[in-house]
Write a structure and sequence with these properties.
Elements (H helix, E strand, L loop, with lengths): L23 E6 L5 E9 L4 H12 L5 E12 L1 H16 L3 E5 L4 H10 L1 H4 L1 E3 L9 E3 L4
Parallel strand pairs: 2-3, 3-4, 4-5
Antiparallel strand pairs: 1-2, 1-6
Helix pairs in contact: 1-2
Length: 140
């Protein structure tokens, strides 16, 4: 016996403006002269310039290792991916090491894979030894 279900009824919903989550950018200085930048929220066209600016304040200090913790990023668009690519290019020019920490964040891992940046960047799920880091107040 074949049972045919009636089609689902679409309920019109009033369009709402996309809620922009403000990214929180924290600079953390762990041991051995490395620096970690932890980003929470959306890494998009609004927050990408702030991230670029925050990193430029640390560039003159020539840290040999830069770790970007993206494990709490809940939105990543092309502008965010572009700033990550720019950071990678700069770290190569300056002979620095860039590590991207994603945790189990599917949003970030999928965006990196779709863009091909997962092959160009040093991506890992977990940081090593960063849990003892102390926070440094943000410049912005």
């Amino acid at each position: 016996m074949l049972v045919v279900q009636p089609p689902a009824t679409a309920i019109p919903v009033a369009p709402s403006a996309r809620v922009r989550l403000t990214a929180e950018i924290q600079v953390v200085r762990p041991y051995f002269g490395a620096v970690m930048v932890r980003i929470r929220g959306a890494l998009d066209e609004d927050s990408a310039p702030r991230l670029r600016s925050e990193l430029s304040t640390w560039a003159h200090r020539r840290f040999p290792v830069l770790v970007l913790d993206l494990s709490e990023v809940d939105f990543l668009d092309a502008a965010g991916l572009a700033v990550l690519g720019g950071i990678q290019a700069r770290s190569v020019r300056e002979n620095a090491t860039l590590r991207i920490v994603t945790g189990d964040n599917r949003v970030v891992r999928r965006a990196l894979a779709a863009s091909g940046l997962d092959h160009a960047l040093n991506v890992s799920r977990l940081p090593s030894g960063w849990e003892r880091a102390t926070e440094i107040p943000s410049q912005g």
